[in-house]
Amino acid sequence: MKKGFVWAGVLAVSMVASGVTAYTVTKAADKDSYTPAESFASNVGTHFTAYEEGGYPDLTYAAENAVKGVVNIVNTQEISSRAGYRGGYGDDGGFEQFFDLFGIPRGQYRQQPEQQPRPQERKSGGSGVIISPDGYIVTNHHVVDNASKLKVTLNDKRTFDAKVIGTDPTTEVALIKIDATDLPTIPIGNSDALRLGEWVLAIGSPYGLQNTITAGIVSAKGRSLQALPTQYSLESFIQTDAAVNPGNSGGALVNTKGELVGINTLIQSQTGSYIGYSFAVPTSIVKKVVVDLKEYGVVQRAMLGIGYNAIDEAFLESDKGKSTGIKEQGGIYVGEVYPGSAAEAAGIKTGDIITEINGVKIEGSAQVSEEIAKHRPNDKITVSVKRGSDVKQIEVVLRNKTGNTDVITKDQVSAYDALNGEFAEVSEKALKSLKIKGGAVVTGVHEGGLLDKAGIRRGSVITRINNSTISSVNDLNRITSAIESIEWINPDGTRDRLLIMPK
């Protein structure tokens, strides 16, 4: 993750046995890490504000109407402490040489003494936005992740239990549902139409405050921060200077007409509190994710299948950029076309410069991600490609990450996602030392996920899932059947196998 960013604000509380602590702000572990901060009807009326004396817009209409559609969310997680090895920050538990072998920084793992299991309950909080009268609510993935129970409190102080319809860690968007009718909603606006300098409101419902409203302007669009930890993360944030503080994750970013244009997600901070910049997922991404989650329970992610660089000043001054002979900024340079991809099938080649997608001018990497994210596998797009002195219009049929155009169901989530961790390729040095031909090294373990529950630690190497040999990280994406068995090599060199009994 990129340094100096935190989630837009998650309030957290822990309860051990019968003891309960007060709500406190969850802060970054250190200064170099991120930590968690439409109505579908199109005929909803809008209010065009007038400017008062002094040059400031009248934001009262937008504030008074939108605040009714913002809710507070409390996430209760049941934590099962298990005896034996537990990972944490500190010394490396005797695995220093193994971590060196994989190039993993030291000082991030320790062996803790065995402890007797005891019941624990942890609570965290955030905000959400009602998008339909029958109880669909959009929020952030990290607000509802690993929830054992969700409690939603409306602006009128009514409370409801909620269920998760689906989440998408790659965009940080989640969809939940409460059993209610005739709820106030916020109409979804067009985030693509936002202009730099346009006034916006950030609205949240943190625990204990019912609602908060702050104002600011759009500072930038299409920001890619490398903040989301998952593979294939999609980042094209709206940047504003509207203050977003703890408990506002998942809240609404609205324009002066009271329309939802983004879901507040991140802030730039070294302390966990707002210091000037906040970032929201634009509705151009949110709308498609929500429709997919409602229909399939999982996002239908389209892939172009290329490796690329934005042609900017930094690229032109790099050795790679100079070797291309490109002199002008703009567009993206195709550095690699992945075998079996949509791009390869369409005839896009290494060295091509992509200047437009479906008529939208491409200035940087985030624009490519955002434009592709609006589509599903099997959708057709038109890509404008500059090849030498020629400009070609290439029609591309998009594919999913497994390389075909099939619909992915909730039961067909890839092994990469199902394991709930982060992975990297095994280095040549490690392959020789372990005497293996391939695998996927675990570089991160998400709490409460399958890796965590199985006791598979950071630094372990996944070598086999079900009946399939894992030779690379990409192999984890190709497996979409339910995981029945996992084989891996531990950081101390011992080998383990886990059999998972069907429910």
Question: What features would you describe in this structure?
Answer:
With 503 residues, the protein is α+β, with helices and mostly antiparallel strands. The chain has helices at residues 60-66, 96-102, 141-144, 283-296, 313-317, 319-324, 342-346, 365-373, 415-419, 428-434, 450-454, 473-478, and strands at residues 5-7, 11-16, 19-20, 24-25, 70-80, 119-130, 136-140, 149-153, 159-168, 173-178, 199-204, 212-223, 237-240, 252-255, 260-268, 278-282, 306-310, 332-337, 353-357, 360-361, 380-387, 390-397, 421-425, 440-445, 461-465, 468-469, 485-489, 495-499. It has three domains: 5-77 and 127-296, Thrombin, subunit H (Beta Barrel); 306-397, Roll (Pdz3 Domain), CATH 2.30.42.10; 413-499, Roll (Pdz3 Domain), CATH 2.30.42.10. Helices cover 16% and strands 33% of the residues. It has a six-stranded antiparallel β-barrel. A six-stranded antiparallel barrel has the order 5-6-7-10-9-8. It is globular, with a radius of gyration of 23 Å. 43% of the residues are buried. Residues 313-389 form the PDZ domain. This is Do family serine endopeptidase.
